[in-house]
């Protein structure tokens, strides 16, 4: 016992005079890097295992397996959440999503919308087409967002309808001449989502572009809000339809809102086909540009 006391006394004395070995505290974990320090995820770009990207929700994800730009929030096999700290939002500092349309503005545009059409679903879909509402100056970005949402509003009755209402049309949208046919069934490719995606060949093309099997599972468009919004953005950004340019190019290249109508419905509405429907779209567009604090530009009609 006396030996133990002497040893304790020696330790205390050493501590008091500063000769004892310094007390080593557990290492503190390094602070997470800012989310904004990681590159934005790009659909269709190859990623190796270990790559970290920033998704449109402002969060970071790490590739668990190499993949050709699959969506981080759809495929948990390929991506996992990755710790990061906050993040900057240079596009719209008051809006965490970075989208030029805030959630409050979105709700103002669509006061009676179906709960399926969530704002978070829209913002999650934006990463699939990063140029959308992100090209040119702020006024042009807002104009494109207004143009897209105006057409979407017209197609869905103000974001009320998720699926095409006339069920008698459903069997019509299967083109059996396509080599892949209609694996989900003849009546499975009816209009769905914000821009009412229809026909088996459109489901195939959209699914291929987005890395999702929409030909085999077209119901994803009516069951997953982000997928639904992505199909609308796919059409807007890549398809000319019956027109000569995409909706995106019509706005950013100055052709005007009228050309976005032509790319969606062509002569069914344009060139005197249905002036009332054209006017409905223009009215939506003008109202939405006011909400977003931008101008509609010229060439509103087709």
Automatic annotation (TrEMBL):
Which residues are connected by disulfide bridges in this protein? 174-182, 270-302
- Keywords of this protein's UniProt record, alphabetized? Disulfide bond, Plant defense, Signal
Q: Which stretch is the leader sequence? A: 1-32
* Recorded superkingdom: Bacteria
Q: Which GO terms describe its biological process?
A: carbohydrate metabolic process; cell wall macromolecule catabolic process; chitin catabolic process; defense response to fungus
Per UniProt, residues of the Glycoside hydrolase family 19 catalytic domain are 101-302
| Active site residues of this protein | 155
Recall the GO molecular function terms of this protein's record: chitinase activity
SUPFAM superfamilies in the cross-refs: Lysozyme-like
Q: What name does this protein carry?
A: Chitinase
């Amino acid at each position: 016992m006396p030996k133990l006391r002497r040893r304790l006394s020696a330790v205390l004395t050493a501590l008091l005079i500063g000769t004892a070995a310094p007390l080593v505290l557990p290492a503190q974990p390094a602070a997470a890097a800012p989310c904004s320090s990681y590159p934005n995820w790009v659909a269709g770009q190859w990623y190796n295992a270990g790559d970290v990207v920033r998704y449109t929700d402002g969060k970071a994800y790490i590739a668990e397996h190499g993949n050709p730009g699959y969506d981080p929030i759809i495929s948990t096999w390929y991506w996992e959440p990755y710790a990061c700290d906050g993040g900057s939002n240079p596009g719209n500092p008051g809006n965490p999503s970075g989208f030029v349309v805030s959630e409050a503005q979105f709700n103002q545009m669509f006061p009676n919308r179906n709960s399926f059409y969530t704002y978070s679903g829209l913002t999650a879909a934006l990463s699939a087409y990063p140029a959308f509402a992100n090209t040119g100056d702020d006024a042009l970005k807002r104009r494109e967002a207004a143009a897209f949402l105006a057409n979407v509003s017209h197609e869905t009755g103000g974001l009320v309808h998720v699926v095409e209402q006339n069920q008698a049309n459903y069997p019509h949208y299967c083109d059996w001449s396509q080599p892949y046919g209609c694996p989900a069934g003849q009546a499975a490719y009816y209009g769905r989502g914000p821009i009412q995606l229809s026909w088996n060949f459109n489901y195939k093309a959209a699914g291929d572009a987005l890395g999702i099997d929409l030909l085999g599972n077209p119901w994803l468009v009516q069951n997953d809000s982000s997928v639904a919004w992505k199909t609308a953005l796919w059409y807007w950004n890549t398809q000319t339809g019956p027109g000569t340019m995409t909706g995106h190019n019509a706005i950013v290249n100055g052709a005007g809102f009228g050309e976005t109508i032509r790319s969606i419905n062509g002569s069914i509405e344009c060139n005197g086909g249905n002036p009332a429907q054209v006017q409905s779209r223009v009215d939506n567009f003008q109202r939405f540009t006011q909400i977003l604090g931008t101008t509609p530009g010229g060439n509103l009609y087709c």
